[in-house]
Sequence to fold (338 residues):
Amino acid sequence: MLVLGIETSCDETGIALYDTEKGLQAHALYSQVKLHADYGGVVPELASRDHIRKVVPLIEEAIKEAGVTQNDIDGIAYTRGPGLIGALLVGSSVARSLGFAWNVPTVGVHHMEGHLLAPLLDDIDLEFPFVALLVSGGHSMLVKVDAIGSYELLGESVDDAAGEAFDKTAKLLDLDYPGGPRLAKLADKGNSERFTFPRPMTDRPGLQFSFSGLKTFAANTIRDLKAASESGELSEQDKADVAAAFQEAVIDTLLIKCKRALKQCNVKQLVIAGGVSANVQLRAQVTELMNKLGGKAFYPAPAFCTDNGAMIAYAGAQRLLAGQTDELSDQVLPRWPL
Ligand code: KG4
Ligand code: ZN
Fold:
């Protein structure tokens, strides 16, 4: 079965063709990062308009890259939510129109299910059940995955998502949008031991996260450094040290909760997915942890950590194989629990 995947939940237009027997056949991605950079964050109306501009050309590009024609496509998967409503409507309208025109079924996919299944785009020996840590710009959650479609939410953030905390702290350090990867790069040059950031909610039982306090701690640290500096500004080393200490606190906190979740579920496989799973330090430390625990860590390929069409095509293909398709009355879901 050849499935077209369409992702338009936020600021990336992601298109892919996934074949359930032959694997990924093509993927095309357009990032709107430059469009939103001047505003320091995603502007929903601009995002929708840019998806409209790019979605059809990218579908044509993916079909060409895969060396197929539209007649070879057996089904269409699109991101139904959660996300920005206008952006979601672009993908869903295009998916459903093409489904109608080509007479093939369509299926709406949960964006986070896409992220969590992304490692399976590679042919890996991941077996159910496993625990997944989903860390993106909009979500931080721990999920027990018993089978495709069978998800138990173990814990989530009570305030900011991990990626959001990265982006907000990056902004405090005057880094351009999107700050997460930039902060990570800066952290490489920093000394994480100079400041002791808290490890939020690790001193009590449970699997909830809270990251907004780390951003506040960073703001206070930066304020104190400015007050103590002759120029009233932070040096590059100051910034790198704050970045390193912040990043270490986030990773430490995530690791403590992952360890707890694995123990609670009595499983030894851990999947890390979502934009923050591209973080090199996080990946290294999770691998080390799983080696120590005698288990194994799985991540998506770096290109499929952040938003993309391949993960939607994959998740949608599994749903279509299971006989699930859309109802005409289905609507996009800007807020949609997993
Ligand atoms: O999954 P994603 O592309 O979009 C959402 O569904 O939110 O995740 C984007 C988030 C952003 O907050 C971005 O700063 C963060 O992932 N991110 C990173 C890194 N790469 C992306 N955060 C930390 N380190 C990175 N290397
Ligand atoms: Zn995402």
Notes: Residues 121 and 253 are 28 Å apart (CA to CA). The mean pLDDT is 97. Residues 10, 136-138, 163-164, 166-167, 178, 180-181, 184, 274-276, 278-279, 306-307 surround KG4 (ligand 1) (CB under 6 Å). The two ends are 25 Å apart (CA to CA).
